Amino acid sequence: MSSKLWQYAGKFSRKVLPYYLFTFLLLSCSVSYKFNGASIDYSKTKTIQISEFPIRSSYVWGPMGPMFNNQLKDEFASHTKLIQVKRNGDMKIEGEITRYEQRNKSVSAEGSSSMVELSMTVNVRFTNNKDHEQDFEQQFTAQQAFDSRLQLNSVQEGLVQQMVKDIVQQIFNATVANW
């Protein structure tokens, strides 16, 4: 009787053992996904200093500065665990809005401008006080086009919001995403 039991146990284990083994291997592997893209060692880096970016462009739209500064701080607050400090941060982001301009992008068949492009450039200085090899100074630019039949003041807010969003994402990726 016990030999039949061992035969049954042997057949059972040959069928079930691979599933148990697969389940064990699957559970023992750890997979880490970071949906925000940030790759920060929080045991070493705990704080970030984000300075106000002044507008140094000759052409200015008043709400652009506060819009950019708030969006940049919000991006790091909502996508990292870094504590924002006024000075002596483990990481430091500073710079200025250096360019804000519009220019004709395309010409219609009649010879007049059909599309106008609005662009914004921000100069960024990034310092990582925990790893100075990551320090950089770089310019980030975004553009948005609009139909020349529209007045700039009627589309400006939405276009600037989109450019700010684009530039803030570029800065985030360059500073903490380490793709």
What do you see in this structure?
The protein is α/β, with parallel strands linked by helices and 179 residues long. It folds into two domains: 1-31, no CATH class; 42-177, Double Stranded RNA Binding Domain (2-Layer Sandwich). Helices cover 39% and strands 29% of the residues. It has three helices and five strands, in the order H-E-H-E-E-E-E-H. It has a five-stranded mixed β-sheet, covered by helices on one side. Strand 4 (113-128) and strand 5 form a beta hairpin. Helix 2 (64-79) packs parallel to helix 3. The chain is flat. The relative contact order is 0.15. The model is unreliable at 28-36 (pLDDT under 50).
> In CATH, what is the homologous superfamily of the largest domain?
Lipoprotein like domain
Which H/E pattern describes the elements?
HEHEEEEH
Question: What is the count of structural domains?
Answer: 2
CATH class of the largest domain: Alpha Beta
The CA-CA distance between the termini, in Å, is 63 Å
Write the layout of secondary structure elements.
Elements: H1 2-28, E1 47-50, H2 64-79, E2 83-85, E3 91-107, E4 113-128, E5 136-147, H3 152-177
